[in-house]
Design goal:
The complex is a heterodimer of chains A (about 325) and B (about 425). Chain A has helices at about 1-50, 50-65, 80-85, 95-105, 115, 125-135, 145-180, 190-220, 235-255, 260-275, 290-315. Chain A has about 325 residues and is mainly alpha-helical. In chain A, helix 1 packs across helix 8. The longest helix of chain A is centred in the N-terminal third of the chain and has 47 residues, at about 1-50. Chain B has 14 helices and four strands. Chain B has a two-stranded antiparallel ribbon. A two-stranded antiparallel sheet of chain B has the order 3-4. In chain B, a hairpin with a 5-residue loop joins strand 3 (about 305) and strand 4. Chain B is globular, with a radius of gyration of 23 Å. The chains are: A mainly alpha (about 325), B mainly alpha (about 425). At the A-B interface, helix 4, helix 8 and helix 11 of A face helix 8, helix 13 and helix 14 of B.
């Protein structure tokens, strides 16, 4: 009887660590490699031709790839504030237009070297700064000889560098995760701690979709704010919601368990609703009929979170840890 | 038989542990009460200094009011650790310490000032006796505490519309810091409060009315919060009535302030943006002290010891004692990490006080400044991991699971 209990414990532990192992090998590593490849392709595209029309497709591909890992806010993405540098949003105080405006007005030579550009404010770097250069009317029609073109090239080079470092570091960090609880591992003192890191990333990612990606444009019924939607200039706010939900679904599936029917159904429901929202830029929040759909989608994302904590959190034996958005 | 023994052992183990928790929570509530009471006392001193400035505007009375503000920040910042984890504090905090703010809502600002997404970032209530706000006509001919708290604060649903609290008062005393990442704080002339022809930048009487109303509000808010932590107060009752929830509140406050708020929002972001406006006390250049006393507040709560503004000490059984009982190595690690962070924050404070201002540290390419700030950030991040370990060591993860079906419950752990 006693022995049976020990055996049961051992089985539980194996199943749980298998979840983390699968998350690393089937979710994280492909996503980081995919982003590194897409960012490298973006750098090549900008090197070949840095004008807006030529760079936009590769920028969109890189953005898509980023959404596959943007929720992994621990380890290599937090190292040197890489996630913040790649994705400085929301920009509530208008820092990105101001910082870019400063660089362009001064024709700041800091863009000439990768090391120099790495010192620049994160508001002027990353995918969202690049979106502004490629899509904003402020810079429309810039030519191959203009400063802005050189800035676009510097942005792409900077992104490719960060993406390559993330992929490289994750290859090593994967060992740290697998090695959780062993002597000399100061990052994860137990397997439980590595499970908690992934679990926290999952629920924080869901919160980000509900509160920021959907919550900001929704505003209130009396005062919808379509102008606060993510990537408003390129009009891909809805695509961001869909791709991040798919990435989170993928993480949830690797982490958790065959026995998470409620979670699977909740993801399917939300993705189905996202698929039926008509406005790609979420500007439909201002239209009462379309707004209902976006509100429903937000609720369904919150429902996923409930399901995840009941099914996956419990199975992993962890609660949510502290995360970077705990402040105000 | 085995079951009986185990159950009995659990019961025996549980009783003293429960008693410990109650004592630890009493210390916690006592420190909170003392901290808010000290904040109140020093806010009243600020109020007297502001009255003197308005009655007899001069360089001296303005300087005295600034000194009083700086002193008032010392106890208040040490209470920030009570914010996250205690809904009563968190729901209220925005009235007294909201930040960052679009100061153009309140008074005149430099022409180069931009407010981002905020439609009312340039409202300038001091200069305008009436205006439209979110479609409503507002009569601001008299600047009262009610106008500030009920109409202007968070106007248009924008959190950057900060009309009340320490930072609004700070702006009214110092003015904008236009030195960028160079040395120097805001340089508001005392004549901004002068009567008649001496008045600079217009509407000096209304500016005085605003300052006075904002300071009165601060005092009344702190009076209210002190009461919440007194014997029978709601905040005290909330943490003491359910010991496990109370301990979780303590740890949540420590962890959320350490990581998301201080390390992230307040410190790392400023470095990454190279932006002097990302300073927490940007008008007065007092940011190093804000950071230091936040860190000290976390240290106080864990060690169950607070030195009051009059030098007397509030102390008692501590969270450290409780964690040590559960797992000595976790307590040793967390204690060591908290000490380390306070030391890193002290180094930052020392450098700033010696003349290396916080906004200079934020300048692009200033690697010495970045190293000072990031050493403190790393300390805060590391101690957060130890706080999570303390949660596990105390067996409090389950509280999170109980809360998982009611995520809207503000008491649920680690939302």
């Amino acid at each position: 009887m006693m022995r049976l209990a020990v055996l049961a414990l051992a089985l539980t532990a194996t199943a749980a660590s298998a979840g983390v192992e699968e998350a690393v090998s089937a979710h994280v590593l492909p996503a980081t490699q995919g982003f590194a490849d897409a960012a490298e392709a973006l750098e090549e595209a900008a090197d070949t031709d840095c004008t807006a029309d030529a760079v936009r497709p590769a920028w969109n591909d890189a953005f898509d790839a980023w959404l596959g890992l943007s929720h992994l806010r621990f380890g290599p993405l937090e190292e040197d504030s890489r996630a913040l540098t790649i994705a400085f949003w929301p920009d509530t105080r208008g820092m990105t237009p101001r910082a870019l405006g400063g660089l362009v007005a001064d024709e700041d030579p800091v863009i000439e070297s990768a090391e120099g550009f790495a010192e620049v404010s994160v508001a002027a770097r990353g995918l969202y700064a690049m979106e502004r250069l490629l899509y904003s009317e402020d810079y429309a029609g810039y030519g191959a000889e203009d400063y802005v073109c050189g800035l676009v090239r510097a942005e792409a080079r900077d992104l490719a560098r960060s993406a390559a470092l993330i992929a490289e570091d994750w290859a090593a960090f994967a060992m740290t995760v697998r090695d959780a609880g062993n002597e000399g591992n100061d990052t994860f003192l137990s397997e439980r701690e590595s499970r908690q890191a992934f679990y926290t990333a999952l629920v924080t990612g869901l919160d980000f979709v509900a509160d920021q990606r959907l919550g900001r444009p929704l505003g209130s019924f009396d005062d919808p704010r379509p102008d606060l939607a993510e990537t408003q200039l390129s009009g891909r706010a809805l695509r961001n919601v869909t791709l991040s939900l798919e990435a989170l679904q993928d993480l949830a599936a690797t982490l958790g368990s065959e026995s998470a029917p409620e979670t699977g159904a909740a993801f399917d429901a939300a993705l189905g609703t996202a698929n039926s929202v008509a406005s790609a830029d979420l500007s439909g929040v201002s239209d009462p009929m379309q707004r209902v759909q976006v509100e429903a989608l937000q609720q369904e994302v919150r429902d996923i979170r409930h399901a995840v904590s009941n099914e996956i959190g419990t199975a992993l034996g962890v609660s949510e840890g502290f995360n970077a958005t705990d402040g105000d | 038989m085995i079951r009986t023994t185990t159950a009995l052992a659990a019961l025996l183990a549980a009783s003293p542990a429960l008693a410990d928790k109650a004592a630890v929570l009493t210390t916690y509530a006592d420190i909170a009460h003392a901290g808010y009471e000290d904040s109140l006392t020093s806010a009243k001193a600020l109020q007297s200094a502001v009255d003197a400035l308005i009655a007899e505007p001069s360089a001296e009375t303005l300087a005295a009011a600034k000194d009083a503000w700086l002193e008032a920040r010392v106890p208040y910042q040490q209470t920030e650790v009570f914010r996250f984890g205690n809904p009563i504090v968190d729901d209220w905090e925005g009235k007294v310490n909201a930040w960052p703010l679009d100061e153009g809502l309140i008074d005149y600002v430099d022409a180069g000032y931009a407010g981002g997404e905020n439609r009312y970032a340039g409202l300038n209530v001091v200069a305008n006796e009436s205006f439209e706000l979110s479609g409503e006509d507002v009569d601001a001919s008299e600047i009262t505490p009610e106008l500030l708290s009920d109409t202007l604060h968070e106007a248009d649903g924008v959190e950057a519309n900060v009309a009340t609290g320490y930072h609004a008062i700070e702006f009214l005393l110092w003015g904008q810091d236009l030195n960028g990442t160079e040395d120097g704080a805001g340089e508001r002339p005392w004549t901004d409060y002068a009567a008649g022809e001496e008045c600079t930048n217009g509407h000096c009487d209304r500016r005085g009315e605003y300052l006075s109303a904002a300071t009165d509000l601060l005092v009344s808010e702190l009076e209210w919060m002190t009461g919440q932590w007194a014997e029978g107060g709601d905040a005290r009752t909330n943490v003491t009535e359910s010991p496990d929830q109370g301990i979780v509140a303590m740890l949540t406050g420590m962890g959320s302030l350490s990581y998301g708020e201080q390390a992230g929002e307040r410190m790392k972001l400023g470095v990454m943006l190279n932006d002097p406006e990302e300073e927490h006390d940007c008008f007065s250049d007092n940011t190093h002290n804000s950071h230091f006393y936040d860190g000290l507040g976390i240290h106080n709560v864990y060690n169950g010891r607070y030195v009051r503004v009059d030098g007397s000490v509030v102390e008692g059984e501590s969270l450290s004692d409780l964690v040590a009982e559960a797992d000595e190595s976790v307590d040793a690690e967390l204690s060591r990490n908290l000490d380390h962070t306070v030391l890193q924050l002290a180094k930052l404070k020392a450098a700033a006080e010696a003349g290396f201002a916080y906004d200079e540290m934020l300048a692009r390419g200033n690697s010495d400044g970045e190293a000072l700030i990031m050493a403190a950030v790393d300390g805060l991040v590391t101690q957060t991991r130890s706080i999570e370990r303390a949660v596990s060591a105390l067996g409090l993860d389950d509280i999170g699971f109980e809360g998982s079906d009611s995520l809207d419950d503000p008491n649920a752990v680690f939302q």
